[in-house]
Amino acid sequence: MCVDSDWIDDRVPLCRSSDEYWKDAEQLRAAHLTEAGVIGPHDFLAARRAMEAELEAVKRLPFLLRSRINTLSLVGQLSEEVLIQIFLILHCIAPPGHHQYLRLGRRSIQRRIGWIKITHVCRRWRNAALAYPRLWNTNICSLGPKWMVKMLHRSGTTPVFVRLTEFMVLPDEITDTSFALSQHLKHVQELEVSVRNGKWNVIAPSLLGEALLLEKCVLSGFACIWDDVGLTLGLFGQHTPHLRQLDMNEMPVFWSSLRSSCLTFLKVTDQPNRRARVDNSSFTDFLDAIERMPALETLILWHSMPALPHTSTLHSDDYSRTIINLPRLQELELTDDILACALLLQCTTVPGTATQIIYCFYDDFVQRPINLIFPWVKSRVNTSLPIRKLSVSDQYYPENSIHILAFDEYDKEDDSHFEQLQDSPIFGLTISHTPSMLMERLPLPELKAWSLIQAMRTASVLPLEDLEVLLITGGHWLQRVHWLDTFGDLDRVSVVHASGHCAEHFCYAFCKSDPSDYSSQEFRDTKTGILFPSLDTLIIKDVLLGFDDDIGRFAKTLTMYLEQRSRLPVRPLRRLKIGGDCGCEVSQTYRRVKKIMPTVEWSSCEGSTEEGKEFASEDESEDESEEENDAQEEEGDEPDDDDNDEDNDEDDGNDDEEGKGYDG
To answer: Bias category Acidic residues: which stretches (predicted)?
Structure first.
């Protein structure tokens, strides 16, 4: 075979065939090792060893030839910079990983090297990958301690990103893994360690050295107080000059030892009934620690503030003199005892634009009254625009709690005001019973959302004069009298979301105009005496509206309520939107509502929009007598107000079954 090409050096003779060339090379190389030259057994063995060495050399020859072939391919012409970019892409889409499985009752791990396979393609690719340290500074713990040592060595002095969980390594590999980590701790820039089942004492010693490059640290695990908490106290030699983010989950916190003035993100979380708090951390130490972090932008504390003495109050001299300035704070989230939250909020000065979400727990009404949190609510409202959108919800399971969100703006064209909250609230407040009380099944004092809203309005901490959108969700807590007494003076509300039994009682309340129904003298003196006179849109969800359902009697009274509302001297209700689980056989209810309302939108009914006339026009020729009979039945279907039973008894001393009406 003769190769004629302009780009091949003329000095390379390629006119002979490959078979002839390598056959001549073999004869020339092994001529002195032929059998005829062998005299004795000793020479025979030496010749055999020499031939085996030649054979090993020949075995390596194909790799050299393959490398030369690869240089003649299109991929082989790529520059090293382009190769590195390709490797970086593979590094992201095919990282090293592991898969756990049980083998003979023991946990085993199957590992895959992912992108590292490219280093086995050719010598040029391997050299290019090994020469770029940033390919080896992440996912270093996924393949076990041996690979970890190799990758740390290949990363050189570049910053290292370490993520280590106990599920990445077998029990007998933890010690070697910890040792490898300790040797390169000074190069670690981001560290995430999550260990459980008492393995913290094995991992912690590897974190006692200085971490001069550490910027982000996430530590998680059940580090109990009976473990060696001294290991936690000595983490990183208490010297992390570049630490920006610290996240500690279920770890004992020594607040007096936290001195990272550069922190921008701090999150400390714990379980409410398993607090890993140590005796030498006082609330004063905690406040001093937060004061040493003026650069904080995010502060999240869940059940992690030190316990307060029972004698502590909101005006205790030990805490009221502390002033904490956090001028850069953008997000604040607290979940703890109501007094602890109130004290921290009282001592802290933050920008008015910061998002603040507070979850308060209380158990002692004498030392921990709900109004402890009122000063914070008032400060948030005073530094913002008027409240235009309000969400109030309560939960009875798994805990008795109240949730309040207040906003200063809303999108008039968007009905999903509360399904996807994109706007930052003026404040978010949750008040609940102490979890320990729930766990121990102690008698819980009654906690009602309407009473909390009334208390906040009476104390002038929740002004709602400009409220336009209101969402109420929950159980039976808000009956007709509660609607009137809590929101009876709000004349600008145009949109109401209500769900469940709240929707039933609201419809009963908004169709009445008798001022005597108000138990509060203040609301009896309103201009109209009608609930929400500017109401334009009503959205109800999760109400049984099946006309033939025994438990869905609200369907028979809804049309009556809407008709009564239309006769009141207020703005006509223009739009009704129904969603959620409304039961079965709702077509008849829809047809009747459609005759009253200009616009009805019902997600479960085909053609329920304003343009969909075909569904509403079905059965237009219903028997008139049937509607009259239904109307007569509806006269006695108004829900009783539990708070006005005495008045009802005085008005009607004859309580027969048909006169009792609907009990919501």
So the answer is: 617-658
Domain assignment present for residue 179? The answer is no
With 0-12 CB in 10 A as exposed, 13-18 as middle and 19+ as buried, what is 621?
Answer: exposed
Query: Within a 10 A sphere around the Cβ of 132, how many other Cβ atoms?
Result: 20
Q: What is the pLDDT of residues 370-410, one digit of tens each?
A: 888 999 999 999 988 999 999 988 876 556 788 999 998 88
Q: What does the pLDDT look like over 618-635, one tens digit per residue? A: 444 443 444 444 444 444
In a domain, 310, yes or no: yes
Between the CA of residue 362 and those of 85, 368, 414, 436, 465, what are the distances in Å?
A: 56, 6, 37, 10, 30
The number of helices, as runs of H, and strands, as runs of E, in the chain is 23, 20
Q: What is the pLDDT at residue 645?
A: 39
Q: How many CB atoms lie within 10 A of CB 393?
A: 20
- Per-residue pLDDT of 250-301, as tens digits, reads 887 888 888 888 999 999 998 776 554 555 578 888 999 999 999 999 999 9
Statement to judge: residues 522 and 421 lie in one domain: no
Long-range Cβ pairs for the range 279-286 (8 Å, 24+):
280/254, 280/256, 281/253, 281/254, 281/255, 281/256, 281/306, 282/306, 283/307, 283/308, 283/312, 283/318, 283/319, 283/340, 283/343, 284/318, 284/319, 284/322, 285/255, 285/256, 286/255
- What is the extent of the structural domain holding 508? 468-664
Assess if residue 474 is contained within a domain. yes
Residues 382 and 502 grouped into a single domain: no
Is the pLDDT assigned to residue 614 strictly greater than 80? no
> Shortest CA distance to 244 belongs to which of 189, 326, 195?
189
548 shares its domain with 662? yes
Percent of the chain residues topping a pLDDT of 70? 71
| Rg of the chain on CA atoms, in Å | 38
Question: What sign does the CA torsion over 197, 199, 204, 207 have?
Answer: negative
Q: What does the buried/exposed string (b/e) look like for 149-160 if buried means 16 or more CB atoms within 10 Å of the residue's CB?
A: bebbebbeebbb
Produce one character per residue of 72-96: b if its CB has 16 or more CB atoms within 10 Å, e if not. Answer: eeeeeebeeeebbeebeebbeeeeb
Q: What residues have CB less than 8 Å from 86, skipping those under 6 apart?
A: 78
- Write down the mean pLDDT value for the chain: 76
Q: Examine the domain organization and report whether 442 and 578 are in the same domain.
A: no
Convert the pLDDT of each residue in 404-425 to its tens digit: 999 988 877 666 655 666 678 8
- Where is pLDDT greater, at 480 or 422? 480
Q: Is residue 553 domain-shared with residue 429, that is, in the same domain?
A: no
Residue 651 has φ and ψ, to the nearest 5°, of: -75, -35
Contact between residue 313 and residue 344 where contact means Cβ atoms under 8 Å apart: no
Whether residue 380 sits in one domain with residue 473: no
Phi then psi for residue 160, to 5 deg, are -110, 140
- Mean pLDDT (whole number) for 512-523: 54
